Amino acid sequence: MFRFFRTLRQSLLSQGRVTRYLSYAIGEIALVMIGILLALQVNTWNEARKQNIIHGTVMTRLSEEFRALEPVVAELVAFTHSSRESTALVVNALRQEQPPADEHAFRAALGRANWVQNVPQIAASYQELVSTGRLSDIRDVELRNALIRYGDAHERLERVYPAATSVIFTPGSNYYRAVDWNMDPETWTGENAIVSYDWTILRNSRSEMQGWVAYQYDLALYAEKELQEIRTILTLLNKK
DSSP string spanning 55-96? Predict the structure, then answer.
């Protein structure tokens, strides 16, 4: 078609028909511009299609990972609450002159008080979005904000965890001096974890264990926040 216009243009110029030449020249330019616009539009469509595929893949990965993560963090929340409550029970018991009347319950609480569960790994898909700077590509503002809050809660949880373990698992503490643990991990349930304890020395661990409660409270708090955001994220993803 462009060859046709060039031939026609040369013919019109040779015949001195300038007006017609200009009309056909404008038509030729218009066709070129239309071709360029169509090419740009096709490129735009292809890029949009590519981005939609990438976005869909990211949404799928987020959904799969957070569904797997939800029960793990829910277990962490329950476990941390149980440890904190057990520590509080022991501290309250140590305020008395004599050991508690319910020896079995006290031994069980004494065993659960000395537990801190590992923090689950952060979701790989979220970490990838942050490290590549693509978190801002999440179109749903509410989902993007929930992901940011999730990352913040997880960061706080990871920051508290090493401090908590360093305090709770101090080898020279009065707790470890007073409590004789069973060395068979398979029996670390209920009262079976504790072989024996020295009540007098154990009472000196009350201030230490009050510090445990503070750390266990923070662990439970940030684990709850992380779980809340995970559930919010899953709710938003399920609407997609």
Answer: HHHHHHHHHHHHHHHHHHHHHHHHHHHHHHHHHHHHHHHHTS
